[in-house]
Amino acid sequence: MVPDREKALGLLKEYITNENMRKHCIASEAVMRKVAERLGRDVDKWGITGLLHDLDAELVDHDPETHALKTAEILTEMGVDDDMVDAIKMHNEEASGKERYTEFQHGLAASETITGLITATTLVYPDKKLASVKPKSITKRMKEKHFAASVKRDHIRECEQIGIPLQEFVELSLDGMRSVSDELGL
Questions:
Q1: What domain range is 35 assigned to?
Q2: Which of 18, 73, 112, 177 has its CA 20 to 30 A from that of 130?
Q3: Exposed, middle or buried: residue 166 (CB in 10 Å: 0-12, 13-18, 19+)?
Q4: Which residues contact 156 (CB under 8 A, 6 or more apart)?
């Protein structure tokens, strides 16, 4: 079962109180929808997976050893599709104890991670608006290890493992986030 967006948003609001974390999840959803469209996959399934991927972040206090496992438990109990639960669980390899190997897993890891780099890049622009950000700026920031240092560039590069070159992935991701810029306040 793929929860509809209204139900997924309700879950997000129930489990996530931090507004920035909610925005991250909305941004991840938007990027996942663009990636799914590009790959010819189920846009709603991939989008909802992006929206719900950090559902347990506050429950486990962002603990990397347990993050995503509680989300997997919650969604499994609800009857959410196994491949969605698996992609969510595997976006945090540390908790799963395994390496990502499916297109869905790599897609979520890359998509949710690039949102941080795009947001950080946007915030250094004078107007702090996604509309002003150029894909080239994001690609340039990928090479700057000290810029948004917590963003794992190797996770973003997983886009290449699903057949999307980095430059194209940056453009898709930026387009996705622009589509929800009002919700993101960017």
A1: 5-179
A2: 18
A3: middle
A4: 110, 113, 114, 117, 142, 166, 169
Query: Which pLDDT tens digit goes with each residue over 28-73?
Result: 999 999 999 999 999 999 999 999 999 999 998 888 888 898 999 9
Whichever domain contains 13, its CATH number is 1.10.3210
| DSSP letters spanning 45-61 | HHHHHHHHTTTTTTTTT
Residue 184 lies in a domain: no
Query: What is the domain count for the chain?
Result: 1
Q: Is the whole-model pTM more than 0.85?
A: yes
Read off the tokens for 181: 């810029």
CB 81 within 8 A of CB 45: yes
